[in-house]
Amino acid sequence: xxxxxxxxxxxxxxxxxxxxxxxxxxxxxxxxxxxxxxxxxxxxxxxxxxxxxxxxxxxxxxxxxxxxxxxxxxxxxxxxxxxxxxxxxxxxxxxxxxxxxxxxxxxxxxxxxxxxxxxxxxxxxxxxxxxxxxxxxxxxxxxxxxxxxxxxxxxxxxxxxxx
Amino acid sequence: xxxxxxxxxxxxxxxxxxxxxxxxxxxxxxxxxxxxxxxxxxxxxxxxxxxxxxxxxxxxxxxxxxxxxxxxxxxxxxxxxxxxxxxxxxxxxxxxxx
Lengths: 163, 98
What we know:
The structure holds two protein chains of two kinds. By secondary structure, chain A is α/β, with parallel strands linked by helices. Chain A has one domain (20-137): Rossmann fold (3-Layer(aba) Sandwich), CATH 3.40.50. Helices cover 21% and strands 13% of the residues of chain A. Chain A has helices at residues 29-38, 42-46, 84-92, 108-117; strands at residues 20-23, 54-57, 77-78, 96-100, 129-135. Chain A is globular and about 55 Å long. By secondary structure, chain B is α/β, with parallel strands linked by helices. Chain B has one domain. Chain B is elongated. The two termini of chain B are 27 Å apart. Chains A and B meet through helix 1, strand 4, helix 4 and strand 5 of A and helix 1, strand 1, helix 3 and strand 4 of B.
């Protein structure tokens, strides 16, 4: 079977070029998967005038399954909450923000800092942004059972006290 | 975690330049089980030659369903929400259907 030449204009991901994408806990399972799905380094190989997506991320230092997973690539710019001014600047400069709090080891303080940066209490928002918060089913743990809910009835969810 | 969800949704209502979606994902698995959700279950299955260690735990009556999702499916769903331009609801569930 004849394979496709690698120089063909194959889009790995159909996003417009050159977006700034912030993924929290980028060294986690979801962070790795998202990075591999969205990276488009090939565009600058085919055409030097094009810029690939720029990835920003935060690192979750907590261990999963007995090991700390590394960041998926050295090209990812790591931002830290310990430098609040830069953190706010980078969050506000991102086009797409994926806030992963689905893992039990995710930092909720860090998530709160991202949301605080997006409140824009001290400046007007300059660009259109998309924020996706990924949570887990524990926020529905104490919801009444035996009743069917759809997405629009999310206000009825009752979490466990810890969540 | 619920507070974070509520805050994010409120942010989306207050800021017209910010589109917000909350995705309640099932427990994530896949790609070599980097997280520890199913680690103990798989380990018990792998040592199945030993009659004692092979016993998998049954919680309750055994008819409960744990919501799960493969990490690649979740990534694809998130990418669709980011880029498709479709009018997705603010709150979504992402779970395996099988």
